[in-house]
Amino acid sequence: MGPDVSTPSLHVHDLAFAYPDGHQALYGVNLSIAPGERVALLGPNGAGKTTLVLHLNGILGGRDSGRAEGTVSVGGLDVAKPHLQEIRRRVGIVFQDPDDQLFMPTVGEDVAFGPANFGLRGAELTARVHQALDAVGMAEHTDRSPLHLSGGQRRRVALATVLACDPEILVLDEPSSNLDPVARRELAEVLLGLDRTMLMVTHDLPYALQLCPRSVVLDGGVVAADGPTRDLLADADLLARHRLELPFGFVLA
Predict the structure, then answer these.
(1) What keyword terms does UniProt attach to this protein (predicted)?
(2) Which of 10, 220, 225, 244 is the most exposed, fewest CB within 10 Å of its CB?
């Protein structure tokens, strides 16, 4: 039985947020992502992208983190204190630096850590680890130390640590950063092969075009544009207005 397409994987309604020092980062963000949709979140530094992402699994939004208004729900479940454990299983954030997620002696132990924390044990846990590593093409590296892997391999193992928790939505923070062209292509092939809802935060506009049919531009704490990625990238005035830039010589096919 597939996902209920009538319920968005992610729904953000009028989300506003100010940090304790008074800095207003979001001014009323509205965003809805359907099950299975792949969406790029674009915008200049300081646009509010990280602040938005940290609301999706409840890292921000609590009473001590600042002043928040509006609502966020994942698969119909509100991001609120009583639901935080389930929300953090549903929202899998793959951070830009794999070192933020890889800290165990072996790849297999790293991938097992999350689902074990959510209560999986024994054969079910072993199967989940194998499935996640297989999905990213890293199953043969189960017993290796993450320290001995290449940057691209570490990025894929970090992705596997999140996939092992069977999230509703994958949030990818600058997935292509610091990857050589081959590792960049390999990761793209993995991501395109996953049947998951994705929100990809990136400055890499060609990667957004390759992976995400839809893009959202966030700037100044509000959604400035939302539409087909190709259409947004073809709008030179829009890109210039929001300090977004295609690589020199890149031509939209």
Answers:
(1) ATP-binding, Cell membrane, Membrane, Nucleotide-binding, Translocase, Transport
(2) 220
